[in-house]
């Protein structure tokens, strides 16, 4: 039993070595997270956004569709983090910036029966968030205790729109 456990450990270490040697350098997700802002801008300058992508599309199909535009480094199809289903758009990183202009000609082309949208990828600026829009979204707070309600003793004239007599009114 102990001999089998040792054999399994040796096999596991061999597989781990092969996995580390077989992957190209810089292909891990951590290396993409450790890029400086200038490097991210440079990578985004070589990338495009592809919208209205079919949910069943694969990275290989997108790569073959944009193969004529230039050498492709990476195809990323974004998925929902909760259920894992694709979101319907992708990013394609090319080897050079000239390929982005070539890929722009593929805008409104058909991919798996859908008309795709191709635009250059924009760079997110650190510190800017589109989700923080302030406390009140509509400008002013709306509640049942605003001016014009019966709670403040304000009673609209009979000509005002929506005027109803209270049930306790003697008139």
From TrEMBL:
UniProt GO MF annotations: RNA binding
Major localization class: cytoplasm
Annotated Gene3D superfamilies: 3.30.70.330
Full protein name: RRM domain-containing protein
One cellular component term from this protein's GO annotations in UniProt: cytoplasm
Location of the protein in the cell: Cytoplasm
Matches recorded under PANTHER family: EUKARYOTIC INITIATION FACTOR 4B-RELATED (PTHR23236:SF12), EUKARYOTIC TRANSLATION INITIATION FACTOR 4B/4H (PTHR23236)
InterPro entries attached to this UniProt entry: Nucleotide-bd_a/b_plait_sf, RBD_domain_sf, RRM_dom
Residue intervals of the RRM domain: 46-123
Key words of the record: Cytoplasm, RNA-binding
């Amino acid at each position: 039993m102990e001999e089998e456990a040792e054999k399994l450990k040796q096999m596991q270490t061999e597989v781990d070595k092969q996995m580390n040697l077989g992957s190209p350098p810089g292909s891990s997700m951590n290396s993409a997270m450790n890029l400086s802002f200038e490097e991210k801008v440079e990578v985004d300058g070589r990338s495009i956004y592809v919208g209205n992508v079919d949910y069943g599309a694969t990275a290989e199909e997108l790569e073959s569709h944009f193969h004529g535009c230039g050498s492709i480094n990476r195809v990323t199809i974004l998925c929902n983090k909760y259920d894992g289903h694709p979101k319907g758009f992708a990013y394609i990183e090319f080897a050079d910036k000239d390929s982005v202009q070539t890929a722009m000609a593929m805008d409104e082309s058909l991919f798996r029966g859908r008309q795709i949208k191709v635009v250059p990828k924009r760079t997110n600026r650190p510190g800017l968030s589109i989700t923080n829009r302030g406390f009140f979204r509509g400008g002013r707070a709306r509640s049942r205790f605003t001016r014009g309600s019966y709670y403040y003793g304000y009673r609209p004239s009979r000509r005002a729109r929506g005027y109803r007599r209270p049930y306790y009114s003697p008139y």
